[in-house]
């Protein structure tokens, strides 16, 4: 009898606690949600109510597979999305927060789990109800709009049906083109297709079960890109109250690609980019072993284009894969000649040379949840013959071909970090540190018996960007790049191996980026090599970048 009383008391306490949570969340939503948009700026100023809701979620106790439990989990998901965004606000969108769905752990009814765990391992697996996709709100405009009420066990069936009907009869969410007999669906239907077709022949059949006007079954299904812009009230409704919130930029609801996809940012799953970055390096002088600038009687030009393809693998943007291919060209003429003669891409023995020099795979990861740091690793594999001009005439000791590129495996590791600065985030600092390792070369191919050991370059670069408009970026940068090698030097009538900086160079430049279309961006950059040592260049570069991102 005592056990039964305790059980009844426990169940009653759970129901009362659930009702209290629902009431508080319902009042919270009615205060901070308007037309499917959230007043994040207001919540950020006073997060006490939100923090109380999060605390109540952690102390809840639900285990029964019923509508009360299901409503609790849906509310918990939406509350914790709001919490993650408010903790990092202001942000461009939820995907700007590393690990928001699959990295950040939350305490839900005493259990640690991520939002993806809650959605995929509990809600979808346990209830197998596709309607939840119209109730779970990820914090982006691409989601069905967040409601201004909480879900409750008593009303859950009617609430989910109503949300499904609203979404599936919304012409912006379900876009029907009768001329081309095509229906354009949110990528939600692609990501969770099995949920919508579990009891139906197709996505269209599922959609028609809630539609006022059926979509013909023979229409082709396509998916429009998901809009990850934050569902922020301040972005679309600038009021006097909102304008007082620091660091909110309501006039820019969505950053352009040139501003949003800096080198430290990764692509989302299914997204890809194609880049070609070309530069012409030209010099009529060099820096000698003392760092002095020495003029020459000829002009040496190097042309390089790095072709890159990158593809997003993960939804949370922590892994990208890609491939590089490098085109190189060399020309030499009198010092008064034009540097652009290298664009003839000729092959005239010792005076000019052109080839695709190397290809290689690359990986890019974002290992940290809340810090804009990413790591990129690339292995370049030489595919052309005698890139370093090692083959030479035994009689004269002269090379048959000019130096064009490194004829070795090159392992290039890049570390990226960026951070917006300023009240309106009109400025951004970006830093890059590289470890570029060139493997030792086969001794049987040395030129004039000069050893070619492995070496390591460690360039460090600093950029300062300014965004005068949403589509343009102006930036300046400075870079210092030393080269480290092992050398055997005499010591006490013997030789010892030392690691030395054998050469270095420094350059500075000014660049400009412009987004021509939603997918295409151009970049111009000029740099000057103002310091160096031991054949460190004393020239300049002219650079052009083209980037297509889809």
Helix content: 10-25%
Question: What ranges have pLDDT less than 50 throughout 5 or more consecutive residues?
Answer: 1-17, 238-254, 443-449
CATH top level label of the largest domain: Mainly Beta
Span between termini: 66 Å
Strand content: 35-45%
Major beta-sheet overview: 14 strands, antiparallel
What is the average per-residue confidence, as pLDDT, rounded to a whole number? 83
Tell me, briefly, the overall form.
elongated
Q: What is CATH's topology name of the largest domain? A: Porin
Number-wise, the strands total 21
Please report the number of helical segments. 12
Gyration radius over CA: 30 Å
CATH H-level superfamily of the largest domain: monomeric porin ompg
Counting structural domains, the number is 2
Structural class: alpha+beta
The CATH architecture term of the largest domain is Beta Barrel
Helices and strands in order, then pairings?
Layout lengths: L1 H31 E2 L2 E2 L1 H6 L2 H12 L7 H22 L17 E3 L2 E3 L1 H13 L28 H13 L6 E3 L4 E5 L1 H4 L1 H4 L6 H6 L11 E5 L8 H4 L3 H4 L13 H4 L11 E16 L5 E20 L6 E16 L17 E14 L7 E10 L27 E12 L5 E12 L16 E3 L2 E10 L2 E20 L2 E22 L4 E14 L2 E2 L2 E10 L1
Parallel strand pairs: 6-7
Antiparallel strand pairs: 1-2, 3-4, 5-6, 8-9, 8-20, 8-21, 9-10, 10-11, 11-12, 12-13, 13-14, 14-15, 14-16, 15-17, 16-17, 17-18, 18-19, 19-21
Helix pairs in contact: 1-3, 1-4, 3-4, 4-5
């Amino acid at each position: 009898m005592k056990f039964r009383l305790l059980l009844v008391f426990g169940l009653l306490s759970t129901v009362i606690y659930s009702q209290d949570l629902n009431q508080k969340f319902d009042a919270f939503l009615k205060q901070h949600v308007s037309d499917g948009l959230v007043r994040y700026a207001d919540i950020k100023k006073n997060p006490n109510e939100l923090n109380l809701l999060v605390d109540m979620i952690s102390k809840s106790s639900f285990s029964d597979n019923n509508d009360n439990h299901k409503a609790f989990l849906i509310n918990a998901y939406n509350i914790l999305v709001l919490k993650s965004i408010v903790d990092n606000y202001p942000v461009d969108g939820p995907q700007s927060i590393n690990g928001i769905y699959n990295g950040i752990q939350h305490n839900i009814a005493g259990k640690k789990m991520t939002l993806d765990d809650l959605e995929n391992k509990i809600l979808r697996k346990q209830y197998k109800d596709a309607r939840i996709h119209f109730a779970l709100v990820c914090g982006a405009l691409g989601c069905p709009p967040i409601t201004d009420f909480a879900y409750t066990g008593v009303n859950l069936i009617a609430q989910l049906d109503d949300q499904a009907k609203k979404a599936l009869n919304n012409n912006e969410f379900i876009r029907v083109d009768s001329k081309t007999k095509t229906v354009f669906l949110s990528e939600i239907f692609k990501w969770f297709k099995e949920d919508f077709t579990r009891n139906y022949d197709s996505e269209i059949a599922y959609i028609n079960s809630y539609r006022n006007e059926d979509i013909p079954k023979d229409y082709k299904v396509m998916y429009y890109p998901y809009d990850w812009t934050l569902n922020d009230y301040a972005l679309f409704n600038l009021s006097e109250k909102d304008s007082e919130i620091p660091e909110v930029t309501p006039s820019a609801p969505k950053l352009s690609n040139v501003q949003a996809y800096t080198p430290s940012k990764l692509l989302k799953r299914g997204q890809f980019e194609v880049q070609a970055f070309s530069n012409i390096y030209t010099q009529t002088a060099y820096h000698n072993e003392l760092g002095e600038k020495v003029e020459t009687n000829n002009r040496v030009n190097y042309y390089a284009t790095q072709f890159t393809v990158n593809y997003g693998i993960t939804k949370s943007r922590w892994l990208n894969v890609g491939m590089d291919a490098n085109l190189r060209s060399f020309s030499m003429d009198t010092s008064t000649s034009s540097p652009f003669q290298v664009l003839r891409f000729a092959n005239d023995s010792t005076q000019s040379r052109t080839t695709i020099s190397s290809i290689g795979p690359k990986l890019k990861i974002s290992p940290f949840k809340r810090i804009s740091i990413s790591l990129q690793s690339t292995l370049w594999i030489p595919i052309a013959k005698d890139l370093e001009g090692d083959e030479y005439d035994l009689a004269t000791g002269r090379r048959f071909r000019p130096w064009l590129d490194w004829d070795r495996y090159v392992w290039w590791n890049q570390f990226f970090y960026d951070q917006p600065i300023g009240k309106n985030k009109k400025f951004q600092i970006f830093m890059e540190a590289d470890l570029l390792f060139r493997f030792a070369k086969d001794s049987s191919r040395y030129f004039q018996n000069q050893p070619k050991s492995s070496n390591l370059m460690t360039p460090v670069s600093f950029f300062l960007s300014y965004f005068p408009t949403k589509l343009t970026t102006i930036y300046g940068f400075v870079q210092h790049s030393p080269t480290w090698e092992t050398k055997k030097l005499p010591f006490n009538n013997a030789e010892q191996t030392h690691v030395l900086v054998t050469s270095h160079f420094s350059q500075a430049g000014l660049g400009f980026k412009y987004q021509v279309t939603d997918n295409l961006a151009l970049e111009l950059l000029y740099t000057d090599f103002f310091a160096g040592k031991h054949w460190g260049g004393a020239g300049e570069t002219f650079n052009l970048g083209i980037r297509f991102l889809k």
